[in-house]
Design a protein that fits this description.
The protein is an all-alpha fold and 110 residues long. It has 5 helices and no strands. Helix content is 55%, strand content 0%. Helix 2 packs antiparallel against helix 4. The mean pLDDT is 78.
């Protein structure tokens, strides 16, 4: 029997729907971070494009996150980087929010 790893050797990787930032061009840290943020946001959105509500809420296991819950997490991570890390703002983090409020938000996407 041939393993998946053995089958993939020599195969051409799939074409990216969202091109990656050009890391060969000189750029400062903020410019490159912004380019990667845009790339990752567009990549996530392109993978979700066309999914209906049921598909966004589907979980592969009872303890796993749905795609919708993962997108909520990505939104918090993006806001953290943009507002707190780059701009120095104070921001209520999920751990600082009431557990009930955070759990309710995440359950909405499960």
């Amino acid at each position: 029997m041939t393993s998946d790893r053995e089958k993939s050797v020599g195969e051409v990787p799939p074409e990216l729907r969202v091109p990656r930032p050009d890391e060969t061009a000189p750029a400062d840290e903020i410019t490159m971070a912004r380019a990667w943020l845009v790339h990752l946001r567009k990549s996530a959105m392109s993978k979700l494009d066309g999914l209906d509500d049921r598909q966004l809420r589907w979980q592969p296991a009872a303890t796993a996150n749905s795609l919708g819950a993962i997108v909520v997490h990505l939104g918090y991570a993006e806001r953290l980087w943009l507002r707190v890390i780059f701009n120095g703002e104070q921001m209520a983090m999920p751990s600082e929010l009431s557990r009930n409020c955070w759990a309710t938000r995440m359950r909405a996407w499960r």
